[in-house]
């Protein structure tokens, strides 16, 4: 029991340090993002969610570095600063329904679940989807629904969504995701060719028109579809 408590205390200290690093990074790139700080609710959620529970066991010691980490199947968990920024750009409300494309091992979904009413997450790779579902369940997140499938198609049965976030990058924003975004909604998605990606904020106004804002250059795994080999 003492060892378990000691580990929890150590991880809590490491999370606080990670939050400080994220804050410094946000300030450093504020000229590009237009945001001098990440909103307090997002930072508080990052300090609550145990990132070490959403990485492979061999990555546990590195979980609180402000760095992407491999999670298997050729995929990564995003850098904490990028996760914080993307979550912040969504401007989540407590009643929002959120679609996430790319469950991975569930870390981003956990943060969304802390801040929104419902999370609908889609993962193409079944091995990751099953592991992500298990990890989120172990952490007690009961407001997340899961689907194994092609993320570029969204989840039409539950559309429209107040917010949409993608953790993998298509060349172009999939039309299905635009169609499934609610009027007045916000989408945060990386897009572009592998060596020329941009993080985009897409908003949909009351007239149904879309506006796209480039936030900063990024590097994400490519969004795969069910048709990819």
TrEMBL record:
<protein>
    <recommendedName>
        <fullName>protein-L-isoaspartate(D-aspartate) O-methyltransferase</fullName>
        <ecNumber>2.1.1.77</ecNumber>
    </recommendedName>
</protein>
<dbReference type="GO" id="GO:0004719">
    <property type="term" value="F:protein-L-isoaspartate (D-aspartate) O-methyltransferase activity"/>
</dbReference>
<dbReference type="InterPro" id="IPR000682">
    <property type="entry name" value="PCMT"/>
</dbReference>
<dbReference type="Pfam" id="PF01135">
    <property type="entry name" value="PCMT"/>
</dbReference>
<dbReference type="GO" id="GO:0032259">
    <property type="term" value="P:methylation"/>
</dbReference>
<dbReference type="GO" id="GO:0005737">
    <property type="term" value="C:cytoplasm"/>
</dbReference>
<dbReference type="InterPro" id="IPR029063">
    <property type="entry name" value="SAM-dependent_MTases_sf"/>
</dbReference>
<keyword id="KW-0949">S-adenosyl-L-methionine</keyword>
<keyword id="KW-0808">Transferase</keyword>
<keyword id="KW-0489">Methyltransferase</keyword>
<keyword id="KW-0963">Cytoplasm</keyword>
<comment type="similarity">
    <text>Belongs to the methyltransferase superfamily. L-isoaspartyl/D-aspartyl protein methyltransferase family.</text>
</comment>
């Amino acid at each position: 029991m003492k060892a378990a408590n000691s580990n929890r205390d150590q991880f809590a200290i490491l999370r606080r340090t990670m939050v400080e690093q994220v804050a410094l990074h946000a300030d450093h790139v504020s000229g590009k993002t237009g945001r001098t700080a990440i909103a307090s609710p997002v930072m508080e959620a990052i300090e609550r969610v145990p990132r070490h529970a959403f990485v492979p066991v061999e990555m546990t010691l590195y979980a609180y570095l402000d760095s992407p980490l491999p999670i298997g199947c050729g995929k990564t968990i995003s850098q904490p600063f990028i996760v914080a920024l993307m979550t912040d750009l969504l401007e989540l409300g407590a009643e929002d329904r959120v679609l996430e494309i790319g469950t991975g091992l569930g870390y981003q979904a956990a943060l969304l679940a802390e801040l929104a009413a419902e999370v609908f997450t889609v993962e193409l790779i079944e091995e990751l989807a099953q592991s992500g579902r298990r990890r989120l369940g172990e952490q007690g997140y009961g407001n997340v629904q899961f689907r194994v499938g092609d993320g570029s198609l969204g989840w039409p049965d539950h559309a429209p969504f107040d917010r949409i976030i993608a953790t993998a990058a298509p060349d172009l924003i999939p039309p299905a995701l635009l169609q499934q975004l609610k009027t007045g909604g916000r989408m945060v998605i990386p897009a572009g060719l592998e060596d020329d990606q941009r993080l985009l904020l897409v908003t949909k106004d009351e007239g149904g028109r879309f506006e796209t804002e480039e936030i900063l250059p990024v590097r994400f795994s490519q969004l795969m579809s069910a048709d990819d080999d």
